[in-house]
């Protein structure tokens, strides 16, 4: 009796128990499997499968077994689930490899055929011609705007270095030499 999910193939994983002292001993992580009977609405059958809890929640979220199998790619399913998916696709009339179900074929009756024939054929529309671009109006030079009077500044003007200050120490040295 294998410990695998019949739909997704989730099985036993291995890992380590890690103690507080960081000692490692090997252990097994078992999947949460449940034996469940799932109903296929399209096939009208009940399938008794071993399914893990995560897959079961996903099936319910998608709206049943049929919707789940249609929306799930075949690469993520087990062989048993692929067989169920294939039989659902055959019953529904969808191509085997398609993810979305094909629309039902429309039956063409004589009344429908007459309606199609009675419709006048669509006349070809002439190709749209783009209108010629309008001539650009000559640009008129705008008068310059009057400048606004400058606002008075409250900042004090910067002091200019005086040439006298450099001359004073030189004058003092010259006077001292005499």
Mean pLDDT rating: 79
Helix/strand order: EEEEHHHHH
Low-confidence stretches are none
What is the overall shape? flat
Strand content: 15-25%
User: Separation of termini?
Assistant: 123 Å
DSSP summary, beta strand count: 4
Strand order of the largest sheet: 1-2
Task: Let me know the largest β-sheet.
Answer: 2 strands, antiparallel
Helix content: 25-40%
What this model shows, in words?
This protein is an alpha+beta fold and 178 residues long. Helix content is 31%, strand content 16%. Helix 1 crosses helix 2. 12% of the residues are buried.
SSE arrangement:
Blueprint: E1 13-18, E2 24-29, E3 33-40, E4 45-52, H1 53-62, H2 65-71, H3 79-92, H4 110-118, H5 163-177
Antiparallel strand pairs: 1-2, 3-4
Helix pairs in contact: 1-2
Quick structural overview:
With 178 residues, this protein is α+β, with helices and mostly antiparallel strands. Helix content is 31%, strand content 16%.
Main attributes?
178 residues, alpha+beta, two-stranded antiparallel sheet
């Amino acid at each position: 009796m294998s410990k695998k999910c019949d739909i997704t193939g989730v099985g036993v994983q291995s890992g380590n128990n890690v103690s507080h002292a960081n000692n490692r001993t090997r252990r097994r992580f078992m999947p949460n499997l449940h034996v469940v009977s799932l109903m296929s609405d399209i096939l009208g059958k009940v399938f008794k499968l071993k399914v893990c809890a995560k897959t079961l929640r996903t099936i319910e979220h998608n709206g049943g077994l049929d919707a789940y199998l249609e929306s799930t790619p075949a690469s993520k399913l087990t062989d048993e689930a692929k067989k169920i998916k294939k039989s659902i696709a055959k019953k529904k009339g969808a191509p085997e490899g398609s993810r979305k179900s094909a629309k039902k074929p429309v039956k063409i009756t004589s009344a429908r055929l007459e309606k199609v024939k009675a419709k006048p054929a669509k006349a070809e529309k002439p190709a749209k011609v783009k209108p010629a671009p309008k001539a650009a109006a000559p640009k008129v030079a705008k008068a310059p705007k009057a400048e606004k009077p400058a606002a008075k500044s409250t900042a004090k003007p910067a002091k200019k270095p005086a040439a006298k200050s450099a001359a004073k120490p030189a004058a003092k040295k010259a006077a001292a030499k005499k």
